[in-house]
């Protein structure tokens, strides 16, 4: 997920600092009290690997993560098929211990064949010499092996073709997404058998994000095969900025010669413009598609506030599908707000889009005594790694404490988290604590009184973002629907 340049914060009276946002929207404070002054999240320097170990026997130890930069030829190498010599000719990786998970971290790896290259398909062996399975190898990454199969049957060309057929069939035959929208997820990483790869379809364009070196190397072949199945004609391939530290490679975006600057997609009849030059992630948040329609069902004649609105997905569906009386969308990313306004014009929808720090805007509304019938809170990913769990949970707490105060009694709060390390149970507990919180009048804010919350539903991403049972991290989006009394 590419992190955009953070817009400058407008000057205002002192208040809790707010974290950065991939969408460009500020988040809530890191303190346990909305009136406290707390620093934003501090960057943690990458952990430096230890010294290189000498090779052992006929195997080489895992090299350092900061190895020399890969050549352009290595970055675009395609190695779908296993060695012509058969599985015995593949490089081998030996484990210190086994883990029933598709992601094997460096600390689990004992040694590897000296000829194993970054991105190679490798045979994975247990400490006692049993073939554990086959995976994609990157000695530069903390996730050193991304497993593809288990047992002693290596993936061949039919393996990849079958995986593509199954992924496309899920979306087109079972879910019949072509009848609902022209934008949906085609490949969802481990859940579809393509670890570290996300592919979204936007009309005739495939937008691809590679979070693993091996998938980046194979992306050209994948795009060609997907285009043949889906009838798409253009494509965009990106490697998010964090892959440099996580996977040990950097690559500029690549695209087809005819890639348009923007395309118009439709979702339940509503039009959205997707910009590829300035959009975040793969260009649009397909994961909230079903939640946007569900929210619209609650908005007829209501006043709606969409905090962290990005390009206006919830706001516009609340107005067009939901026939809300009045809708306000707030985001700090000026480019996203301009796109949201264009989306509103596409649908002839009257919506008040505000370029502002959403947390500060919520405080301003609280000072003014303003409340809304429906409030949507969809902040950025506030927890990026395990070191940020405690800090991120406090930010979610502060965000929800403010949002709950802005809901008219009897109204609805939709609270979302896209942090994979924030479980649905943890988000529900955060909302419970935020509802029970109080504070005395201060900082020109009125006294905060407890709210009574009734959970109506818990949802997540659409079914085109399936969850792999063996990889719970693929369940990243949580949405809790609350009635606030």
The N- to C-terminal Cα distance equals 37 Å
Overall tally of structural domains: 3
Whole-angstrom Rg: 24 Å
**CATH superfamily placement of the largest domain:** Vaccinia Virus protein VP39
Taking the sheet with the most strands, its summary is: 7 strands, mixed
Low confidence ranges: 1-66
Tell me what the structure shows.
- The chain folds into three domains: 72-154, Archaeosine Trna-guanine Transglycosylase, Chain: A, domain 4 (Roll), CATH 2.30.130; 158-263, Transcription Regulator spoIIAA (2-Layer Sandwich), CATH 3.30.750.80; 277-484, Vaccinia Virus protein VP39 (Rossmann fold, 3-Layer(aba) Sandwich), CATH 3.40.50.
- Helices cover 24% and strands 24% of the residues.
- It has ten helices and 20 strands.
- It has a seven-stranded mixed β-sheet with strand order 16-15-14-17-18-20-19, with helices on both faces. A six-stranded mixed β-sheet has the order 2-6-5-4-1-3, with no helix packed on it.
- Helix 2 packs across helix 3 (213-230) and helix 9 (389-405) crosses helix 10 (424-436).
- The protein starts with 71 loop residues before the first helix and ends with a strand.
Topology diagram in text:
Layout lengths: L71 H5 L15 E4 L7 E3 L3 E4 L8 E5 L5 E7 L5 E8 L6 H18 L8 E6 L8 E6 L2 E6 L2 H18 L3 E5 L4 H5 L6 E2 L6 E6 L2 E6 L13 H8 L6 E5 L5 H8 L5 E6 L2 H13 L5 E4 L2 H10 L4 E6 L11 H17 L1 E11 L6 H13 L16 E7 L18 E7 L1
Parallel strand pairs: 1-4, 9-10, 14-15, 14-17, 15-16, 17-18
Antiparallel strand pairs: 1-3, 2-6, 4-5, 5-6, 7-8, 8-9, 10-11, 12-13, 18-20, 19-20
Helix pairs in contact: 2-3, 5-6, 8-9, 9-10
């Amino acid at each position: 997920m590419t992190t955009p340049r953070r817009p400058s914060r407008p000057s205002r009276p002192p208040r809790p600092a707010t974290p950065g946002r991939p969408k460009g929207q500020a988040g809530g404070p890191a303190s346990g009290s909305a009136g406290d002054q707390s620093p934003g999240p501090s960057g943690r320097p990458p952990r430096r690997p230890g010294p290189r170990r000498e090779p052992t026997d006929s195997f080489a130890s895992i090299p350092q993560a900061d190895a020399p930069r890969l050549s352009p030829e290595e970055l675009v190498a395609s190695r779908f098929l296993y060695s012509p010599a058969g599985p015995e000719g593949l490089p081998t990786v030996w484990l210190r211990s086994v883990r029933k998970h598709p992601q094997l971290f460096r600390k689990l790896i004992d040694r590897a064949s000296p000829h194993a290259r970054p991105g190679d398909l490798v045979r994975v062996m247990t400490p006692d010499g049993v073939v554990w399975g086959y995976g994609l190898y990157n000695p530069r990454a903390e996730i050193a092996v991304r497993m593809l199969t288990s047992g002693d049957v290596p993936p061949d060309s039919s393996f990849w073709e079958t995986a593509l057929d199954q992924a496309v069939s899920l979306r087109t035959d079972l879910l019949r997404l072509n009848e609902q929208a022209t934008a949906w997820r085609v490949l969802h990483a481990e859940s579809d058998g393509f670890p570290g790869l996300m592919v979204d379809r936007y009309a005739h364009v495939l937008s691809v994000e590679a979070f693993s070196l091996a998938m980046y190397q194979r992306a050209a072949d994948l795009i060609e095969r997907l285009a043949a199945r889906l009838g798409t004609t253009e494509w965009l391939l990106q490697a998010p900025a964090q892959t440099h530290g996580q996977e040990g490679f950097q690559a500029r975006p690549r695209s087809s010669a005819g890639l348009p600057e923007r395309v118009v997609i439709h979702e339940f009849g509503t039009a959205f413009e997707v910009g590829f030059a300035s959009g975040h992630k793969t260009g649009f948040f397909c994961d909230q598609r079903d939640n946007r329609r569900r929210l619209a069902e609650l908005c007829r004649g209501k006043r709606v506030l969409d905090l962290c609105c990005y390009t206006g997905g919830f706001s516009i569906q609340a107005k067009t599908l939901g026939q809300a009386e009045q809708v306000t969308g707030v985001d700090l990313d000026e480019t996203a707000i301009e796109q949201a306004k264009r989306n509103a014009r596409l649908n002839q929808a009257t919506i008040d889009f505000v370029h502002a720090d959403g947390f500060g805007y919520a405080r301003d509304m609280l000072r003014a005594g303003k409340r809304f019938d429906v409030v949507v809170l969809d902040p950025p990913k506030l927890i990026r790694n395990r070191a940020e769990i405690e800090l991120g949970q406090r930010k979610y707490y502060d965000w929800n404490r403010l949002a709950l105060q802005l809901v008219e009694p009897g109204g609805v709060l939709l609270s979302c988290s896209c942090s994979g390390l924030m479980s649905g149970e943890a988000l529900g507990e955060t909302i419970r604590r935020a509802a029970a919180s109080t504070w005395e009048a201060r900082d020109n804010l009125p006294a905060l009184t407890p709210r009574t919350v009734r959970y109506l539903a818990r949802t997540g991403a659409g079914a085109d973002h399936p969850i792999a049972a063996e990889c719970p991290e693929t369940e990243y989006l949580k949405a809790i629907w609350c009635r606030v009394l």
